[in-house]
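Hey, sorry to bother you again with one of my protein questions. There's a protein on my desk that I can't quite get my head around. No rush at all, and the record is pasted right below.
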Amino acid sequence: TFDIEDTTVARIIEQYEDWSAVETHESSSHLEWFQDAIEPLMSSDPQLFQYEVSSKTEAEGP
């Protein structure tokens, strides 16, 4: 997603079932390809945030 106030900011949100899935993704060839492809577009080092969610519920629609 892109920031509506700063169009130079893009956010990539990923969800994993467990830590093993994260490790598998981090060692994948497609992630390496993506990082190589996006690097020329970046003006600074990425900021990485990790959140651990203990539960989730379906949101009510309008």
User: Anything to note?
Assistant: The mean pLDDT is 90. Residues 13 and 29 are 19 Å apart (CA to CA). The radius of gyration is 15 Å.
